[in-house]
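Handout, page 2. Input:
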Amino acid sequence: LVRRRHRTEQGGQRLGDTGVGAGHLGVVVRAKMLTGERRGQLLLALGFIAVGVAAFLHGSLLQPDAAAPSVLVTRLVGLGLLGAGSLRSGDAPPRRPVGPALALLFVAEVATVLSLPADVEWLGDTARAFGALGLMLSSALIFALS
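Output:
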């Protein structure tokens, strides 16, 4: 059970890293596709960097505990910055999935803080995986439709 749980968490983390990477690439390469304001672009860039740093800390096992303050606080600050930056992005159709994706990632962090029992811990991992998938898909839609 421990081995399978670690694989599930690791898979969700890898998908999270990929989602963060796709979003960060979008901010770096074509920031105006995500938001026209400089402040929004800065918030998105800082948010993706913070979430990426947290994903690196936890994924590389520099900090193996997902509930450690260095991982959790960095990830929550990053999600907050992403939320603030995405509010400035307008209501274009490809940008709409960003909100639910961020909400799922926030739910995953709440599940991490609550330290759910092993039989329902998969809920947090699943929320993290689907949130990251939402970020990846919205990034792909933004690139495809712009």
